[in-house]
Here is the input.
Amino acid sequence: MRLLLATNNPHKAAELRAVLAPYFAEMCTLREAGIDLDVVEDGATFAENAMKKAVETFALAADFDAVLADDSGLCVDALGGAPGIYSARFSGVAHAVANNNAKLMEVMRDVPDGARGAHFVCYVVLLRRGLPPVCVEGICEGSILRAPRGTGGFGYDPYFFYPPLGKGFAELTADEKNEVSHRARAVRGLIAVLGAEGDG
Ligand code: IMP
Here is the structure.
């Protein structure tokens, strides 16, 4: 089955590919497929944004059997769930990772250690021809560090601590992150749904 990944984010694409490789023979990103599409993420939820990305991409994906879109972000308890769906543009500038992280540190400066809980969310939507959509949410719980740790990952990873492994996300190997991340959990949930369809 040929799967189009509705993203041009190389980090997301690598994580999706790693988890999906056993299940899809061929995967392309938008750029690899020669599709120039920048979906306006104006939904009110991760689910709405992911569905919008999936639908707009599917309309351009005649050469593919399926499209997988994800919308993801960081939700911080002490900030009432912010930045949430605005994670990519928390600082006001889209995809300005250093500015987003600087703003996170600034707004979290006075938040005490016991109140720094946060979680990553990833909502995935799979659209296929003639079949119902498959939508799954993955969540990964952790907390916000006071200073960056590690050099791996992307986005907010250097500031996200994952207690079960006693490490920050940017300190994990790619394989470790792909075991526990919100994206990996969502994709594994999706694979479970596809497996159940096959059994039914
Ligand atoms: P999206 O492209 O709208 O899904 O933007 C997601 C944003 O959330 C990214 O730009 C990152 O800032 C953040 N994000 C999502 N997943 C991760 C992750 O696995 N690690 C670190 N940051 C992430």
About this structure: The longest strand covers residues 117-128.
